[in-house]
Design a protein that fits this description.
Elements lengths: L5 E7 L5 H15 L4 E6 L5 H5 L7 H10 L7 H11 L2 E2 L4 E4 L11 H14 L4 E6 L13 E9 L3 H16 L3 E9 L8 H9 L6 E2 L4 H8 L12 H13 L1
Parallel strand pairs: 1-5, 1-6, 2-4, 2-5, 6-7, 7-8
Antiparallel strand pairs: 3-4
Bound molecules: adenosine-5'-triphosphate and magnesium ion.
């Protein structure tokens, strides 16, 4: 059965602000929407929980491994994995979080993986919104948690190099037939607007910039102090601009 809620994914080059922005998208949903929200950390090097200020008990990757070796005697594998996937759900304030962890090996059709997928799908059905933070770059795109995404955010810094990745990601998403409702390009950490070259490149390729976010003092300060950037003050220009934008599209 097709998932009925709204799926949001955030992607882009390394270090451009994907996880920070994912956190602030989740915050928008928590503050403004009724409905159940699931945050998904799909980065192998997971750190969304730090941005959100949460502890993680168990990951999907670890669950898959456990199933190979540690199913209690007499317990059907199916029962075990159903129970373990539920254990991967971490409860936050107004949303839940799951961490995918280490991905399965390439072309892995083992029972553990198939069962994991089955119970993840059942889990996703409980939520009205799913927000996924993804790994940097493009290699992982073919193994996105899902091929259907309603809103796909590609984050870039204001440089020519970074916007080049934006175009490559859009092209790749189309070529591997991801089913994407809307693409949005976010330029993050724009101190003095966007590079002229980068702007021209986007224009030549008919790529619109949906949103420009500033270099943010609050984010930098929370970062320095090791505090979760999910909780920066609402007067932050990033929060204001991002949330205003989300109010238009969600
Ligand atoms: N607008 C901003 N102003 C100031 N600092 C920012 C801003 N956006 C992100 N940062 C900082 O930049 C660093 C990288 O951000 P983040 O982890 O969100 O990027 P990422 O794209 O998820 O990185 P990765 O590719 O490693 O997953 C963090 O220290 C974050 O706090
Ligand atoms: Mg990240």
């Amino acid at each position: 059965m097709k998932y009925k809620g709204i799926k949001i994914a955030v992607a882009g080059k390394g270090g451009v602000g994907k996880t920070t922005i994912t956190g602030l998208i989740i915050r928008y949903l928590v503050e403004n929407k009724k409905g159940k929200i699931l945050a998904v950390d799909a980065d192998t090097n997971s750190n969304l929980h730090e941005v959100l200020g949460m502890e993680v008990r168990e990951t999907i990757g670890n669950t898959r491994e456990l199933m190979r070796t540690e199913v209690p005697q007499g317990m059907p594998k199916e029962t075990f994995i159903e129970y373990k996937v539920m254990e991967c759900v971490n409860e936050g304030d107004g949303f839940d979080l799951i961490v995918m962890g280490t991905p399965e090996g390439q072309g892995c059709y083992c029972a553990a993986n198939t069962l994991c997928k089955k119970y993840i799908d059942i889990l996703l059905d409980n939520y009205d919104y799913i927000v996924m933070d993804n790994e940097a770059g493009m290699e992982h795109m073919s193994r996105l948690l899902t091929k259907d995404v309603d809103h796909f955010f590609i984050v870039s810094d204001p440089s020519r190099r970074s916007v080049n990745t934006v175009k490559r990601m859009i092209d790749l998403a189309k070529s591997i037939k991801l089913n994407i409702g809307n693409f949005y390009v976010i330029i993050n950490r724009a101190k003095n607007g966007i590079d002229k070259d980068a702007e021209n490149f986007l224009k030549e390729n008919n790529i619109d910039i949906s949103l420009i976010l500033p270099e943010d003092e609050y984010i930098a300060k929370f970062d320095r102090e090791g505090k979760p950037t999910y909780k920066i003050p609402a007067e932050s220009e990033t929060v204001k601009r991002l949330h205003q934008f989300l109010a238009k599209i969600l």
